[in-house]
């Protein structure tokens, strides 16, 4: 049973975490600064935000302008290469072998209009105990993405087993097996009060006996919940929980979910 003091402390800690999440989204170069996502190919492309012609040349992206030709080689799945663009910047990314440019504007409408992340009230009852079972070796799990045709490949360290309402459930946990774990999941609230593609739950490294804590009050939105210019993964089929996790962040897209 949770004491009043424990609940107050828990709530204060959660509010600090939630405030840090919101502060990160307020960064002028963060996810809310995105105003566009443009896919490139071998045909020259003109973008209003950046002077010059963009095109793909094999394994690289060329930007040809009056100042000459810039050559960029973004890494698959990694943060993009930055190119100055007005008060913001263009970010050249590579996803599933395709190249794209994302535009960041510190005066974007989404950033200006941001008032916070809607969330369920924190309840200690949604902090559940589980046990981590490591795979014999790290496996690669491939998931789809919110952008059709893209894939994400994740290193999966093992399974987390836990009990809720008398039933056992399990989740595939991403990581290298030597530290913290990450879980992408959906549940009965997905597409109703929470973002449909997935939420992410960070899990501290298992103890020596494999014990882990699942604090669903800190289930967080992926960037794609806030912008269409993100290329986030969707949850793997194994991580679709059959019950409603009424905890953590709610969808910022639906006013009814607030």
Automatic annotation (TrEMBL):
PANTHER family, per the entry: DUF1684 DOMAIN-CONTAINING PROTEIN (PTHR41913:SF1)
**Name assigned to this protein:** DUF1684 domain-containing protein
Q: Which organism is it from?
A: Rhodococcus aetherivorans
Q: Which domain of life is it from?
A: Bacteria
């Amino acid at each position: 049973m949770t004491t009043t003091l424990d609940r107050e402390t828990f709530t204060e800690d959660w509010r600090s975490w939630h405030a840090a999440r919101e502060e990160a989204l307020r960064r002028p170069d963060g996810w809310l600064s995105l105003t566009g996502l443009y896919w490139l190919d071998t045909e020259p492309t003109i973008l209003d935000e950046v002077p010059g012609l963009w095109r793909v040349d094999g394994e690289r992206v060329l930007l040809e302008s009056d100042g000459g030709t810039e050559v960029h080689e973004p890494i698959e799945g990694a943060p993009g290469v930055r190119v100055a663009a007005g008060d913001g910047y263009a970010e050249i990314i590579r996803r599933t072998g395709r190249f794209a440019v994302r535009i960041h504007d510190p005066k974007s409408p989404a950033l200006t209009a941001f008032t916070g992340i809607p969330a369920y009230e924190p309840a200690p009852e949604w902090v559940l105990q589980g046990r981590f079972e490591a795979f014999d070796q790290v496996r690669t799990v491939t998931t789809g993405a919110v952008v059709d045709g893209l894939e994400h490949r994740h290193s999966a360290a093992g399974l987390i087993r836990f009990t809720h309402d008398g039933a056992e459930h399990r989740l595939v946990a991403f990581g290298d097996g030597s530290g913290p774990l990450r879980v992408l999941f959906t549940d009965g609230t997905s597409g109703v009060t929470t973002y449909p593609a997935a939420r992410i739950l960070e899990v501290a490294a298992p103890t020596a006996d494999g014990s882990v804590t699942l604090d669903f009050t800190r289930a967080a939105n992926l960037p794609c919940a806030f912008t269409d210019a993100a290329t986030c993964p969707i949850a793997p089929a194994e991580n679709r929980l059959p019950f409603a996790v009424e905890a953590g962040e709610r969808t910022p897209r639906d006013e009814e979910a607030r």
